[in-house]
Amino acid sequence: MSPLTTLRDDLARWREKYEATPERDALFTTLSGEPIKPLYTEEDLPEPDQIGLPGEYPFTRGVYPSMYRGRLWTMRQFAGFGTAEETNERFRYLLDHGQTGLSTAFDMPSLMGHDSDSPRSLGEVGREGVAVDTVDDMETLFQGIDLGEVTVSMTINAPAAIMMAYYVVAAEKQGVPPERLGGTIQADILKEYIAQKEWCFPIDPAMRLLDDMIEWCTHNMPRWHPVSISGYHIREAGSTAAQELAFTLKNGLTYVERAIARGLDVDSFAPRLSFFFNAQIDFFEEIAKYRAARRIWARELRETYGAKNPKSWLMRFHTQTAGVSLTAQQPLNNIARTAIEALAGVLGGTQSLHTNSYDEALALPTEEAVRVALRTQQIIAHETGVTNTIDPLGGSYFVEALTDRMEELAYDYFRRIDEMGGMVEAVKQNFPQREIADAAWELQNEIDSGRRKIVGVNSYTEGGDDETPILRIDPALERKQVGRVQAVRARRDSAEVERTLTELKTAAENGSNLMPPLIDCARAHATEGEIVHALQQVWGSYSEVPVF
Amino acid sequence: MPATANRTIRIVVAKPGLDGHDRGAKIIARALRDAGMEVIYTGLHQTPEQIVETVLQEDADAVGLSILSGAHMTLVPRVVELLREQDAGDVLVTVGGTIPADDIPELKRLGVAEVFTPGTPTQAIVDFVRERCGDG
């Protein structure tokens, strides 16, 4: 009898016994609604070459040959509030506590291109991140931190090129040239229109601004990641895991196509593209998502876009645990959720990780809550033993089958998006926006009906709601920041500001690369709002037709 | 004006300020619509002035403000104040989002009818609006 026949006989015997026991009344689907079989066996495994080895094509098992045996992931906690002074203090605190990279959260006015003293900014300055209005704020933000040594991540998108210009000038004042700067700016503008919804310009000029920045960084900042292609916000907005995977990779492939269309060699920029994914609570689904993402990216870059440099094939990513999985009820339970999500990121082979704090469904985290979140990563890294071997789940019948399934679902979406004429067109037609809203609605119905249990929310609701200490942002910080930006306006050379803004508008009209004039605006201490306004005079602004 | 028994409840769902988190607002809008109400969703990034103008133009019975940015203590009082100035103080105002428990009494004192924090079932919101605006 062949081994396969034996397996089938064994399975038939198992199935008979299995079916003799009634199943619990439960969903048995992933968080994304994907049905899961009671048992996976070697019949579910893909061809061995689809699994491969770590550091080898198609990279299912990890992008590096040594993974965490060589170097742990970067523990990178996202931080920012108040003015640049307060955030600079928090950065130093995190570096003192063993964090190995910095990650900057900007406030809403900064994300939307409004100055702190704009009427639109009232009540929002420094609330959800740090307020940065001018290059002076950027200098304060990194005071006493050597930008040639630390890597910095900046989570900003629509005005990313402006912040990039501020950062380059701030580093220049520290004596650090652009070619020595290491880090990442998010700049993933497509996902803004899809999910995060912080925009400044219509889609087409916004894409051109990003293309300009990628091109400029490719020539001038070889250590910098000019875009972090982000699924995080897509997932937070309510997508399924497969939608997060598909829309994120398709956004990334769109940036690749456009850079190639500008005449850049794919191998000159593709190694600097990086990714950012969510880690939701459905443990195996998340791990499968990361593994599928690596395989799809490697295949597309090599086969479709002709990348020859193996570094171009690597899908390297940052992970953040799911903010949306945190509950305001019984907040200490969130420590357990975050630990499980973080472990999924690690077993999925992440390059860096942010763990959320347990109090974040209530407000920005307190210092104590941030420390517990960072300690969670350190416990995974140093106590659990999961870093002793590379990709410990590789070859698992279930994980490999789920990885295949994720890949299949992603390619289904790729086909539908291609039929619409590509991602930019699909976004203009609200396609990903509608898919995400529908998925969010389905999940909410499962939760509201009690079919999907959320501990502390629709089940096990007794107790644990004692007052959790929360961080209060002092309203005086808004006045302080308004004072800072107005002081810069008073002391700078306003003729120089006018001159650089005029040159910026000329470049916006004539199509030349916008990074050099943006850097000139930064040096002249032009504010973010002034720069955005100048560009809007040429390009107009954006508002969406919402779908729900 | 409050809805009478034979008039469909009209409700504006609004996103004040610069906050881009619209998952909750869209789910609430859909739930209210499915419950038979006339829902006007403003879309994102609305000023208090724009929201109040929409409420007046649409002759709405209620307005639900969704805020996850921490700016609620600035934006909500302004909406309530503008409604009063426009003789629309009888419009039901509710707030949803990440609102710390300590801020809720002050919001209610200002005239907010209810604050719905994360984890509130959509049916609870539908029931509340229906009870306070007539049963449509």
How are the secondary structure elements laid out?
The complex is a heterodimer of chains A (548) and B (136).
Chain A: H1 3-19, H2 48-51, H3 67-70, E1 74-75, E2 78-79, H4 84-96, E3 102-105, H5 108-112, H6 135-141, E4 152-155, H7 160-174, E5 183-185, H8 189-196, H9 203-220, E6 224-225, E7 228-230, H10 232-236, H11 241-261, H12 266-269, E8 274-279, H13 283-304, E9 317-321, H14 333-347, E10 352-354, H15 367-382, H16 397-419, H17 423-428, H18 431-448, H19 476-491, H20 494-510, H21 515-523, H22 528-539
Parallel strand pairs in A: 1-10, 2-3, 3-4, 4-5, 5-6, 7-8, 8-9, 9-10
Helix pairs in contact in A: 4-6, 6-7, 7-21, 11-13, 11-16, 13-14, 13-16, 14-15, 20-21, 20-22
Chain B: E1 10-14, H1 23-34, E2 38-41, H2 48-57, E3 62-67, H3 72-85, E4 92-97, H4 104-110, E5 114-116, H5 122-133
Parallel strand pairs in B: 1-2, 1-3, 3-4, 4-5
Helix pairs in contact in B: 1-5, 2-3
Can you give keywords for this protein?
heterodimer; A: 548 residues; alpha/beta; TIM Barrel; 5-stranded parallel sheet; B: 136 residues; Rossmann fold; 5 helices; 40% helix; globular
How does this structure look, described?
The complex is a heterodimer of chains A (548) and B (136). Chain A is α/β, with parallel strands linked by helices and 548 residues long. Among the domains of chain A are: 72-228 and 485-548, TIM Barrel (Alpha-Beta Barrel), CATH 3.20.20.240; 241-393 and 423-429, Alpha-Beta Barrel (TIM Barrel). Helices cover 50% and strands 6% of the residues of chain A. In chain A, the strands form two sheets. Chain A has a five-stranded parallel β-sheet with strand order 1-10-9-8-7. In chain A, helix 13 (283-304) runs parallel beside helix 14 (333-347). The model of chain A has no long low-confidence stretch (mean pLDDT 95). With 136 residues, chain B is an alpha/beta fold. Chain B has a single domain, classed as 3-Layer(aba) Sandwich (Rossmann fold). Helix content of chain B is 40%, strand content 18%. Chain B has a five-stranded parallel β-sheet, with helices on both faces. The A-B interface holds A 108-109, 111-112, 114, 120-124, 127-128, 192, 196-198, 236-238, 324, 327-329, 361-364, 437, 440-441, 444, 447-448, 454, 457-458, 467, 470, 473, 543-548 and B 17-23, 25-27, 29-30, 41, 43-45, 47, 69-71, 73-75, 98, 100-101, 117-119, 121-123.
